[in-house]
Amino acid sequence: MEFEMTRVEKILNEEKACFAEIKKMLKCMEKKVTELAPQGRYSDTAYEIEPAEMSPDIPGNTEEREDSERTESQSDDEYLAWLIEESGERDEQTTEQNPLSIDDETVTKEREMANSEVGGCGQEPMEDESTPAPNEPVQKNRTRGRQMENGKLEHSFNYLPKRKIQEFTKNTAFSRCSLCGRQGKHFSDSCPRITRGFDGWDFIEDNGLCRHCLEDCSQKGCSNRSDNCWYCEVILKKAPILRSLVPQKYHHRTLCPIPDSKPEIAASIKKMKKKLFPSRHY
């Protein structure tokens, strides 16, 4: 029994201290509200009402006086029962007056502020058209990469060598064309009879000629075996982006397909430009 009384007394003391703290907080809040009270619509000067000057007829002061009198006249057990009942009634009144929870009120205020920033109260927030789609940065990076690739391709296109086709060439008195057999007229690379590298490959294979010197020799002992094609050297040094055009086998420059690929590369550049800039005319 003593334990129960001690426990009740402890709870009662805690409740009294809590209630006193609540009363203190309420007084501070009333003071702040009084200080922050707006001026009257037609008044020229601001005025403040101190808590000490408030009339005893004000409902708030009457309640405080009644509470203090009730506290003095009641016993500890009666006061505890009254405090529990009073707290329950206040919670019910607060729930009825404020049906929204704190979280709901916060969300509602945030929505109202967002709406007022966009276009005023009652309007739906407008979507920001400048906000990029999730895949827009990826698309921009791809487009930028294609533009860079096309720029390199155009730059390399200017270095594509061109085969000089002509019937008569200077300084060919002791040269014989391996494709047409004429002596002292032109080099094999300038022959007007066979102008394409792939056609030259077919010719030497059909006639059993060496792909290094274009003569009828043993390929193992050919003196021109280690010589590099001039067209391939130009591409590897000045236009490495086109290195896929270089054949894997060593060959005489007469058989090189690189000079014949210029129209094909030009068509690829034009096609890529149409994809990158569809509104332009090429």
UniProtKB/TrEMBL annotation:
Native source organism of the sequence: Haemonchus placei (Barber's pole worm)
Disordered: region residues: 39-144
Top-rank lineage group of the source organism: Eukaryota
UniProt protein name: CCHC-type domain-containing protein
